[in-house]
Amino acid sequence: MELEYKSVPFEVKELVDLTGGGWEISGYASVFGGTPDAYGDVIVKGAFLDSLAQRSPKHLYEHFEPIGKTLEIHEDDTGLLGRWSIVDTTAGTDAYKLAKAGVLDSLSIGYVPVDYEYRADGVRLLTKIDLYEVSSVAVPAQPRARITDVKRAPSERLHLGLELRRRRLRHRHGIAVSITSDAGETP
Asked: Of 14, 163, 164, 184, which one has the greatest count of Cβ atoms within 10 A?
């Protein structure tokens, strides 16, 4: 079977610390029921359970480049809810900045349909899906699924705070201060 994709939009609600560096997004990668998506499909609750028991899906940028990993993912009454890290790489930084600005506002899934049936109106009901990846994308297939949060790493916030203190000391007192991380590196 061929890998298929579903996309859903998201919105940024807050900026929250992420331990270990990088960033994090969260939201619905897919939603259950309702009107068919752009491909004429409706996903049924329970469709992801077997796949999630076997593997954690990868986190990609536009179904192409790895930018992080799945931190948490599960089905709830609405759909497939999860949290994904974004690593501080070129693609990851681009994805984070676009998400923070509200430009990159969708999630999409890459999957293989395992079990499905067709309704009389031609809509395909996906009852079992083998999920391989969740992507941050710009154009969604399913407009009801949303990213709800974009979060920043605490180490980045800490370095910004230290840099502001360093500048204040230099400005107010003419004191030059060097800031180093726990590893002895200058941030």
From this structure: 163
Closest Cα to residue 41, out of 104, 125, 111, 144? 125
Q: Are residues 165 and 74 in the same domain?
A: no
Q: Which of 180, 176, 147 is nearest to 162 (CA)?
A: 180
Q: How many domains does the chain have?
A: 2
pTM: 0.74
pLDDT digits (tens, 9 = 90+) for 92-148: 999 999 988 888 888 989 999 999 999 999 999 999 999 999 999 887 777 765 676
Quick one: 19 exposed, middle or buried, by C-beta within 10 A (0-12, 13-18, 19+)? exposed
Structure tokens at 29: 């990668």
* pLDDT per residue as tens digits for the range 46-62: 999 999 999 999 999 98
Pairing of strands 124-137, 58-61: parallel
Residue 98 CA: distances (Å) to CA of 17, 25, 127: 18, 12, 33
Range of the domain at 78: 4-152
The predicted pLDDT at position 111 comes to 93
Q: Are 84 and 71 in contact (CB under 8 A)?
A: yes
- Residue indicated by tokens 């407009």: 143
